[in-house]
């Protein structure tokens, strides 16, 4: 593996002497950073995948706690929905 392959897509390789090549490398890195930051659906997908993996590990280690957490979350969501429905009905 060469040094340029080890760099992330958003990094500019060191040692570029040619100003045109340097500007192209900086532009490429900036566009990659914008793509990574701006791609909200991809970021949400990665975050939800991590959350599901953590929840599965927690459920494997502590099944009673996972059930209690699920019931608590369901009660909280139900309470919020009930409060919103009640506020709209008034």
Description:
By secondary structure, this protein is an all-alpha fold. The protein folds into 2 domains: 3-38, no CATH class; 41-89, no CATH class. Helices cover 81% and strands 0% of the residues. The protein contains 4 helices and no strands. Helix 3 crosses helix 4 (63-89). The longest helix is centred in the C-terminal third of the chain and has 27 residues, at 63-89. It is elongated and about 65 Å long. The relative contact order is 0.06.
Show the helix and strand layout:
Blueprint: H1 3-6, H2 19-38, H3 40-61, H4 63-89
Coarse shape: elongated
First-to-last CA distance: 66 Å
Low-confidence residue ranges: none
**Helix-and-strand structural type:** mainly alpha
Largest sheet: none
What number of domains?
2
Can you give the mean pLDDT? 88
Report the sheet-strand fraction: under 5%
Report helical residue fraction: over 70%
Helices and strands, in order, run as: HHHH
The quaternary structure here is: single chain
The total beta strand count reads 0
Number of helices: 4
Q: Cα-atom Rg, whole angstroms? A: 23 Å
Keywords: Membrane, Transmembrane, Transmembrane helix
Organism: Microbacterium algeriense
Transmembrane segments: 64-85
Protein name: DUF3618 domain-containing protein
